[in-house]
Design brief:
By secondary structure, this protein is α+β, with helices and mostly antiparallel strands. The chain contains 8 helices and 18 strands. Strands 6-7-8-3-9-10 form a 6-stranded mixed beta sheet, with helices on both faces. Strands 13-17-14-15-16 form a 5-stranded antiparallel beta sheet, with no helix packed on it. Strand 15 and strand 16 form a beta hairpin. The radius of gyration is 24 Å and the shape is elongated. The mean pLDDT is 93.
Length: 324
């Protein structure tokens, strides 16, 4: 079921150069949809446009059948968690979470019931009287999440919410976000530049480039079947070979490029591609070798070091090749 739609959205900061270009996106009810891409691709601009912080030049934003394109921020009823969390330092955890409910002038009993329930869901029971300065990064992040969720928003918008946490805590908190999102069944849009983080929690992923969506699909679809070179490079394909260079027939006559991950290339005595090792780098759990071949430079990961200038035979399994 469609929850919302961005239709032919154009956005510019200077009324000349487009940051978002005819952007179209369907948002499904109850899903966690991630916007993924490098800095400058338009993902945060898309989120801020949905939130109402940025006006559109052209296009429409529809939600539950209503036109939200020009609706004021405070009338959208969206929950937003920023990279900085933006907690009120002078307010306790309880009062931070209760802030939006007090603005809506709910009675004290209703506020307490809703805040207590949200603190339970976000694993913050017992922290009601603490202040942000006395909380860990993960606890502050959960307070920001509870504050965004307690108002029962139409959408939950998360803008790089984990980027200020260390690596181990990021893993823990992304699991918490997914648990809470599923428990509440709330439609969520998550902005990140971290592929692993994105794939771990998303129902669908929109890979963005230059203000447009390059590919939209499940994490498995995008990881295994990238449709463009840009997406393929983003998800770890380092080797791109013109199809017409292959010495034997391969099963995709419509494609111009074949790509394959370094981990999927085999160094084998029965390999069909001759090569010479140019460099060998230790990556911790494997070695990456740069190998010159008749098909061009090939990057190949292997569990053993191969000396530079050594001649090798490579096999590029056809079931590991992807065509774009």
């Amino acid at each position: 079921m469609i929850k919302g739609q961005l239709k032919n959205i154009n956005v510019s900061y200077n009324k000349k150069d487009l940051v978002l270009k005819d952007l179209n996106l369907d948002i499904q009810e109850g899903e966690l949809l991630s916007l993924l891409g490098p800095s400058g691709c338009g993902k945060s601009t898309t989120l801020r446009t949905i939130a109402g912080f940025i006006d559109v030049m052209d296009g429409e934003f529809l939600l539950d059948g209503d036109n939200f394109t020009n609706k004021a921020i405070h009338d959208r009823d969206f929950g937003i968690v920023f990279q900085s969390y933006a907690l009120f330092p002078h307010l306790s955890v309880f009062d931070n979470v209760a802030f939006g409910l007090k603005l809506r002038k709910l009675d004290k009993a209703s506020i307490k019931q809703k805040v207590d329930e949200m603190l339970r869901i976000c694993d913050l029971t017992g922290f009601e009287t603490r202040f942000p300065k006395n909380l860990s990064g993960g606890q502050r992040q959960r307070v920001a999440l509870a504050r965004a969720l307690v108002i029962e928003p139409k959408l939950l918008l998360l803008d790089e919410p984990l980027s200020n946490l260390d690596a181990q805590l990021r893993i823990q908190m992304r699991n918490e976000i997914k648990r809470i999102q599923r428990e509440l069944n709330i439609t969520t849009i998550f902005v990140t530049h971290d592929q692993e983080e994105c794939f771990a929690i998303s129902d669908r992923v929109a890979i963005m480039k230059d203000g447009q969506i390059e590919q939209l699909g499940t994490p498995e679809e995008i990881y295994s079947h990238p449709k463009t070179e840009y997406v393929a490079r983003f998800v770890g394909f380092d080797n791109f070979i013109p199809v017409d260079k292959f010495p034997h027939t391969i099963n995709n006559s419509n494609a111009s490029l074949a790509c394959i991950r370094p981990n999927d290339i085999l160094v084998s005595e029965s390999g069909w591609l001759k090569g010479k090792v140019v460099t060998s780098e230790f990556l911790g759990n494997t070695y990456q070798h740069r190998i010159e071949t008749d098909l061009g430079t090939i990057h190949c990961n292997h569990n053993l070091r191969i000396e530079e200038d050594a001649e090798v035979l490579l096999d590029l399994p056809e079931n590991k090749l992807r065509f774009i």
